[in-house]
Design brief:
Length: about 60
């Protein structure tokens, strides 16, 4: 049994696991920020409708 090779392989696996975990954490943070931005935009749109409820209610079309 090659102890040095085994140790290197375990260290490599540990590093890959840590990198994967950090990347997932960063992706989750990005998703959370995007979700918060989307909620903020929806709140702003709801505020606009409450101030001007007639906006967007009718569409004028000519054929």
């Amino acid at each position: 049994m090659d102890i040095a090779g085994l140790s290197t392989e375990l260290a490599s696996i540990s590093l890959m696991t840590e990198v994967g975990t950090q990347m997932l954490s960063k992706a989750m943070d990005t998703g959370e920020a995007l979700g918060a931005g989307l909620v903020e935009m929806m709140d702003a749109a709801a505020m606009e409708r409450s101030v001007h409820p007639e906006l967007g209610a009718n569409i004028d079309m000519r054929i």
